[in-house]
Design goal:
Number of strands: 8
CATH class: Alpha Beta
Number of domains: 1
Distance between the termini: 15 Å
CATH architecture: 2-Layer Sandwich
Structural class: alpha+beta
CATH topology: Alpha-Beta Plaits
Order of helices and strands: EHEEHHEEHEHEHHE
Shape: globular
Helix content: 25-40%
């Protein structure tokens, strides 16, 4: 399955407390399915932060970057459901971006995940990428309780194309999006946090060429829907 995933759509957001229960019910019962049923999507996952933030994160896996900016996707966007019309305007502090999957290791999935945003310094992206792919990802996979690890890199062209069709200024704020996301999945929060401490210390990543604005969140998987379910 990991080999089939060539691109991901990532969204971070916050939700007002007064609509949170009803919005979550709509998102899990309708919205994820509405997106993942588009041809070319593989699955959609939703996370809630247990360490760091933002509070909510959604990840959609696809067969390639063309899916997230294709006509079939925009047909869905152009015809919002009643629930989407009601609830989508409540999202705030949202960041949405499309990413190419640069590398993945591991074939399993975990109920907890760590997400580290990374921006390479000018002139050292290749060296930092090599370190993450050749050292950090295999190291994470070998760590106790870690089932898979990935490097996602923002695709500016696809992100810009996929921005059309979203109403208002709630989505997307792609200019705020990180360059890369280092993601990994584990079986427990303790393992996810321990792996971050052992294998992804900020001093090491900065030494390999990352900007100092490294942001980390540990999240719990709350919902997963696969295409064709």
């Amino acid at each position: 399955m990991a080999g089939e995933i060539k691109a991901v759509s990532v969204m971070w957001t916050e939700i007002p407390e007064e609509v949170e229960p009803d919005l979550n019910e709509w998102y899990d019962r309708e919205h994820v399915k509405n997106r993942v049923d588009v041809p070319g999507y593989i699955w959609g996952k939703r996370y809630r932060a247990v360490h760091g933030g933002p509070t909510y994160m959604a990840v959609y896996a696809t067969e390639g970057p063309h899916v997230q900016a294709g006509d079939e996707f925009f047909e869905v966007v152009a015809n919002p459901t009643i629930g989407e019309t009601e609830f989508a305007p409540h999202f705030f502090n949202s960041i949405r971006m499309m990413c190419d999957v640069t590398a993945s290791v591991g074939d399993a999935e975990g109920g907890f995940a760590g997400f580290l945003t990374v921006t390479p310094r000018e002139g050292v992206a290749d060296a930092l990428r090599s370190y993450i792919v050749d050292t950090a990802l295999p190291g994470l996979l070998a760590h106790h309780g870690i089932m898979a690890a990935h490097l996602w890199e923002r695709n500016d062209e696809t992100t810009a194309m996929a921005s059309r069709g979203f109403p208002g200024d709630n989505l997307p704020k792609s200019m705020m999006a990180p360059d890369w996301v280092l993601a990994y999945e584990g079986t427990s929060l303790e393992d996810v946090l321990a792996a971050k401490t052992a294998l992804l210390p900020e001093s090491v990543l900065r030494g390999q060429g990352a900007h100092p604005d490294l942001l980390f969140a540990a999240m719990q998987l709350t919902y997963r829907y696969a295409h064709g379910s």
